[in-house]
Structures are given as structure tokens and as C-alpha cells.
Write a structure and sequence with these properties.
single chain, mainly beta, eleven-stranded parallel β-sheet, globular
């Protein structure tokens, strides 16, 4: 599902008198004097003071050099050229192709601009944003293993419809955080990230795919696959409050803790998301929650591995709230799906293998349509985590705090009550 961005334009009010032609001479004199004063001090409306209309800037990988970006025929040949020309409120439309870094080793492929939406997935002929098809018109931002961050975020910016790959944050903390956020770096800025695939990115420290710090970004309909970092194989959140909706975390690896996500000193919210086949060499196969207050609602955790504790979620000196979730067949050294140390984890209306104290919790196989599994070669083989008609997860959830839709945007609930996990059963 793709979002079409709409921009509001408010017309400037016009000076008029609708009471006829009977203005008194004295009032006319005062009005003229007032207008003359405004003109004299430069405060009267001029072209330079009227905000320009939002515009669309176009990008095609095969475009001829020298284009001004105002049409597909005169497109820029790289997204950064369009971003450099864009103003707050503009859109950048990027046609299918592979776009790499323009600068020296370490440079980003793109630096987003405040208030500018960058949309990929066009063929290069569209006249409306909702005509694009990112699944077939594949648009790639490739750091080629040399970019510390493939994308650098900006406030109120949007990244929508891209594959982000080849980021390699192999620098150091002292060198401007070049050891975090191989795919995307959001330091103190809060963009929206939609309909994107982050794959094959790495970081020496935090957030192989995305690093968030001191912000509250929105992440919707994204897939994080095969990313690598010391903490947070896919996402590292530090003093952040991200909202993550309808995301998939699959096959990401943490060399310490938090195979999918690591949270530190923040308050993330995760809804309708799937964590499967992620690996941590210590704690939190899917999630490490460190000194944070995290909320997980209608999420499915399965097939994640942690060498020590918390195959699904591990919380240290923090809190985690788990509602309408499924945690099944996550593997650890001590056999725990959920674990904590000096922290507090509350779970309710959830399936937790091995059992977990809380209202409405179950210890029963959720009966996925197809379970994922680890192959003999150590590779994760993905499953289908929708529910069969016999699943104990059907009609077992609570409506309190639950979303009104599932990961397929099916309305919740379909029957008597909300289902558990990322997917609502809609068939017979």
C-alpha cells in the first residue's frame, strides 16, 4: 500500500469592501495613507513574499546531463540534484534504476531535505503519484559498500518506495557517528519511512539498517532483511520514540544483542510487525530493550535466536508491554521467549511458548499457515504467519489499545474479537 502525498495551499485573503460604494472620504484617506506606509516600508505584498506553489521534481537514471528536473523529459539524473533544488513541501519523483553515491568514499547517496517527500517506483511516464509501482519499477539507493549511511534523514521528510542497500557504517563514533546507521542515519530529525526494503547494510556499532537518535520517526510497511550491527541488527534507537507499523524484520544479525531492534533510553511503539529468523549472539534474538519503555501490540515473534536469554524480547532496566502478540519457537540458551534483568515485562492476551504470567495468556501452538524453519545449512526459510481457522489465536485478543487493521490492512476484528499476532484471520 502506497501513500499519495497531498499538500494544502491556503489562498491569501483579498482586501475588499462588500458594503457597496459608500465608503466615506475620511476612511478612504486613512486607507490610502495606510497602504502608502506599507509600500514605503516594503511590507506590502510582493511576489517575493508569496510562498511558491509546491512542485514536483523528476529524476531518471538515464537522463541527459543539464536537465532542470521540471519534467520527465528534462529530469535530473540523480536524486540528490533534485533534493538540492527542492523547497519545503516539494516532491521528488525518482524513476526505476540504481543510484549510487556522487561524492568520495563515505558520502551518502542522498541527503533528504526538510519537508520534502522523495518517492521511488516510477517508470518515468507517470503523471500521478499513485500510478507508480515500486514492486516492479525497482528503485535502488546503493551505497556500494563505501557510504557510511546510504540516506541521511531530515525533519518532516519522507522516503517512500526504495530499496536501500550497500551501506557500511564502518567508521567510529568520534568521526561523526560513522559507526551507526548503515542504511539510514536520523540524528535529531524525524522523517517518515514508507514502503522501503533495507537489505545488506551494516554498522560497526548501532543500527545496521537505521539509526535513530533523539527523534520520533514513523516507519510503515518496510522490510528489514539481512542487515548486521553490533547492537540492533536492523534498527538502533537511542533516546528515541519511533512508531513502527506493519514492518517485517527477517534474518538480521546482532553481534552482541538485539537481532532485530535495540532500544536504549527511549519509548518505541511497534504494531502489526513480524520478527522472524533474527539472531543475537547474546541477548534478545528479536529485541533488546535497554532502559526503555517499549510497547509491542499485535506482533508475531518466531524463529529468532539468542545465545543467552530472551529469544523474542530481552529487557534490561526498562519496561516492555506486550499485548495481543505471539512469541513461539524462539530459541535461547535458557529456553526463554521473554526475559528481563532488573526490568519489568508485562504480557497480556498473548501466546508465549512455555507460558507467561498475565491476563489472557496462552501456551498453545498458534497454528500458523506455515512455520518458518532453520535449514541444515543454517539459513532461515521464511514461513507464512497468517492463522489457520483452528488457531487458538483467533478471537483471543483484547480491543484495548489494539489497532483497527492488521499487517494486510484487513479490518480488526473480523469475528467476535481481535486475533493475536500481526495478521487477522478473515476467511472461513
Amino acid at each position: 500500500m502506497f501513500r499519495t502525498w497531498h499538500y494544502k495551499h491556503t489562498a491569501l485573503p483579498m482586501l475588499s469592501d462588500r458594503r457597496g460604494q459608500s465608503l466615506a472620504l475620511g476612511r478612504l484617506t486613512l486607507l490610502c495613507a495606510f497602504l502608502s506606509t506599507l509600500i514605503f516600508i516594503g511590507a506590502c505584498a510582493t511576489d517575493s513574499q508569496v510562498s511558491p506553489e509546491p512542485q514536483v521534481l523528476y529524476v531518471r537514471a538515464e537522463a541527459v546531463d543539464g536537465g532542470d528536473g521540471t519534467s520527465w523529459e528534462t529530469a535530473f539524473d540523480h536524486p540528490q540534484d533534485a533534493l538540492d533544488a527542492a523547497r519545503d513541501g516539494d516532491q521528488v519523483w525518482v524513476a526505476q534504476g540504481i543510484y549510487g553515491p556522487l561524492g568520495p568514499a563515505g558520502d551518502e547517496v542522498v541527503r533528504l531535505a526538510t519537508g520534502v517527500a522523495v518517492l521511488g517506483g516510477f517508470t518515468g511516464t507517470e503523471s500521478e503519484a499513485d500510478q507508480r509501482a515500486p514492486e516492479s519499477a525497482v528503485t535502488v539507493l546503493d551505497g556500494q559498500g563505501s557510504s557510511y549511511h546510504v540516506v541521511r534523514g531530515a525533519d518532516r521528510a519522507a522516503l517512500d518506495g526504495f530499496i536501500v542497500t550497500g551501506g557500511n557504517a564502518n567508521g567510529t563514533l568520534a568521526n561523526g557517528g560513522t559507526d551507526t546507521g548503515g542504511g539510514m542515519f536520523n540524528g535529531g530529525v524525524s522523517p517518515e519511512i514508507r514502503n522501503c526494503l533495507f537489505t545488506g547494510n551494516s554498522a560497526n556499532y548501532w543500527g545496521g539498517a537505521i539509526y535513530n537518535e533523539d527523534n520520533n520517526p514513523l516507519i510503515v510497511d518496510c522490510l528489514f532483511e539481512n542487515n548486521l550491527a553490533e547492537f540492533g541488527g536492523a534498527i538502533g534507537n537511542r533516546r528515541s520514540e519511533p512508531t513502527i507499523i506493519n514492518a517485517v524484520f527477517r534474518g538480521n544479525v546482532s553481534l552482541t544483542s538485539g537481532g532485530g531492534i535495540t532500544n536504549y533510553d527511549g519509548a518505541p511503539t511497534v504494531i502489526n510487525s513480524v520478527f522472524s529468523g533474527n539472531i543475537s549472539t547474546a541477548l534478545g534474538g528479536a529485541v533488546l530493550n535497554n532502559k526503555s519503555d517499549a510497547v509491542f501490540t499485535n506482533c508475531s515473534f518466531t524463529g529468532n535466536k539468542a545465545l543467552l536469554r530472551g529469544g523474542g524480547i530481552f529487557t534490561y532496566q526498562g519496561r516492555a508491554h506486550v499485548t495481543n502478540c505471539i512469541l513461539w519457537d524462539n530459541r535461547t540458551g535458557d529456553g526463554t521467549e521473554i526475559a528481563e534483568m532488573d526490568g519489568d515485562v508485562t504480557a497480556q492476551f498473548s501466546i508465549v511458548q512455555g507460558g507467561y504470567a498475565g491476563t489472557g495468556n496462552q501456551d498453545t501452538n498458534p497454528d500458523f499457515i506455515r512455520e518458518g524453519q532453520w535449514g541444515a545449512d543454517g539459513q532461515w526459510m521464511e514461513g507464512d504467519y497468517r492463522l489457520t481457522s483452528l488457531s487458538p489465536a483467533v478471537d483471543s485478543g483484547t480491543a484495548a489499545g489494539a489497532p483497527s487493521f492488521d499487517a494486510d490492512y484487513i479490518h480488526r476484528p473480523q469475528f467476535r474479537a481481535h486475533d493475536l499476532g500481526a495478521f487477522e484471520r478473515s476467511g472461513p
